[in-house]
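FAQ: What does the model actually see?

It sees only this:
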Amino acid sequence: MSEDRPAESPAWGEPPPPPQPLEPPVPAAPPPPPESGDGAFVPAGQGFAPPPVTPPHPHDFYAAHVSGPRPAAAMPPAPPPPGYGAPGYGAPYPGYGVPGYGAPGYGMPGQPFSPGYGVPRPFPPAKPYSGRAIASLVMGIANFMFLITAPVVAPIGFIVGWLALKETRDDGPRQGRGLAVGGMAINGVALLVCVVVGLAIGGAIFAAEKERQQRQERWVESDFDTIRARLQIYYERNNNSLGPGGPVLATNSIRYDYSNRAPREEGKVAGTLSLRHLVTEVDLLGSVSEFTLTITGTASAVVRHSPSGREMRVIDIGSDNYTITPRP
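And it is asked to produce this:
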C-alpha cells in the first residue's frame, strides 16, 4: 500500500492534470442480530427501549391545551412573481391608513377624536364670564375704597351680585360664581363699615352738640350773674331804685372785679333802664342783643335770653332774691 503524497503542482505554463474519478464508498457490514437468552432470533423492533420523547416547551400553548399529534406548520404562500401586481398587496387595509399620515380612524393631534375607538370626546368650550358678577365686584371695591358712595352704591352692587348668582349656576349660561360671591361680600362689608362709621360720626356730632349746649348754658348763667351784679350797683347808686335817673354803668373798658371797685359812671339814665345802660359786648360771654331787660318794679326785673328761652326773674334785687328758669 503506497503512502499518500501530496499532488505535485504543475510547472508554470503547463495545464493542470485532469481530475480523477471518485470511487463509491464501501458499505459497512451490518451488526449481528442479538440473541435471546435461549439462542432464538429476536425480530427487529422488539427487545429494544423506545426512543426518548422530548417534553414540550413550557410556553407552547398548543402543546399545553391540545392533545394529539401536532399539525404541520402551514407554509406562507409564495409571493407572486414581480411584474404581475397581484391585488391586495399594494394598498393598506381600509380603515387603518398608513401610520403618520393622519388616516381617518385614529385622529391626529389638534383634530377632534373619531368616535368608535373608546377615546373621550373633547371638553366643551368655556362659558363666558358674567358681566353682572364683574360689575358687582368692581362696585364692591369702589365702595370699600370710597365709603361716601357706599350708602347708595353698595345696595345696588349687592343686588347685582345676587342676580349674577342665578346665571352662574352649574347649568347656567355663564361662569364667574366666585366673582359674584366676592362682590356681594365686599358690598355687604362696605355697607356695614359705612353704617358703623356713620353711627360713630353721628355719635360724635351728638356729643359735640350736647357739649355746646352745656357750654352755652354755663355762658348764659354767667351772663345772668353779670347782669344781676350791674342791677345791684345801679339799684344802690340810684337810691335803692331801678327807676330812671341812675348812673350809666356800661363802659368800653375791661370787665371789673366788683368786689374791689365799681365801673365808672358815664352819665345819667334818662328814661327806662335797659341793658345798654348796664353792660357792653366785652362784659358778656354772649351778645348783648341776645338778652332783653324788663323793669317790673323799683326792685324787681325780668332778664330773658332769647336763643335758649331761659329767664332770670329778679324778685328783690336788694336782698338778691332771684330765680332762673331751666332750659325748656
